[in-house]
Specification:
Helix content is 25%, strand content 38%. By secondary structure, the protein is of the alpha+beta class. β10 and β11 form a beta hairpin. The structure holds 2-acetamido-2-deoxy-beta-D-glucopyranose.
């Protein structure tokens, strides 16, 4: 009986140590305009020298997706908080001033955490483009979004016995400031990277005539107003 137990332990250990995978990500930027939905379809493909495990071996693990963002793109921390509270998406980003134009902003990062319930995971991040200062002739600026990094964490040592060891990393567990031990998992991107997001820029050549006309309207309006107040006083003083 004891021997049989040891045999079972040993064989499951061999199985797990041989269950390795490659990870493939299809990343898409959906919708148009300044507010968009970045989606990730993450697929684990298991491979093994032995027989493939009959069921998904990582039901209790979590992935941490780290998406770097250029200065011109941001995720709204309040929006992410709302999504987290309503259990629709577990994502955080560093505090950022969402009012600032791209020129005064810093690159940022969004972290998404999700359980690996199956070998196919879909997740997303709501993203927004910052305004750019108007330039002569206007046009478009290009924001380039780099590939995400993928980290993984399991309650047991499931990720420790890989033939090519995964790189350890001590980073945020989830939303709070506590740190956990993760492993960085190499990924294959299925789509072309970086992802390009063109943002329209105001035209300074339009700005000056518009400003002049606006200023003129304000001045004429004010003069008209002062004159009519004077007239009113004149009528009522006598
Ligand atoms: C973005 O796309 C994902 C995946 O299709 C979807 O689950 C999510 O609800 C979308 N977000 C919004 C704000 O519509």
């Amino acid at each position: 009986m004891v021997k049989f137990g040891i045999f079972l332990l040993f064989s499951s250990y061999v199985c797990l140590s041989d269950a390795q995978f490659s990870v493939h990500i299809e990343q898409n930027l959906r919708w148009d305009g300044f507010h968009r939905n970045m989606t990730y379809d993450i697929t684990f493909i298991l491979f093994s020298n032995e027989e493939l495990p009959s069921k998904w071996p990582y039901p209790d693990c979590v992935i941490g997706l780290h998406q770097p963002l250029p200065a011109g793109i941001y995720a709204n921390p309040d929006e992410l908080n709302d999504l987290r509270r309503s259990h629709r998406l577990n994502a955080i980003t560093k505090k950022t001033n969402i009012e600032l134009p791209a020129e005064q902003s810093e690159p940022n990062m969004v972290y998404v955490v999700k359980k690996t319930a199956t070998g196919k995971i879909r997740t997303w991040i709501p993203l927004h483009a910052r305004y750019h200062r108007a330039v002569r002739f206007g046009g478009y600026v290009l924001n380039e979004i780099e590939a995400p990094k993928l980290f993984m964490r399991c309650p047991d040592e499931k990720l420790d016995n890989f033939k090519e060891p995964l790189t350890p990393a001590k980073i945020l567990c989830t939303g709070d400031s506590k740190k956990c031990n993760w492993k960085e998992v190499p990924v294959f991107m299925n789509n072309k990277m970086p992802i390009k997001w063109h943002v329209p820029v105001g035209d300074l050549n339009h700005y000056y005539p518009v400003a002049v006309v606006t200023a003129a309207a304000v001045v004429i309006g004010s003069v008209f107003l002062i004159l009519s107040i004077d007239e009113y006083k004149f009528v009522h003083d006598y």
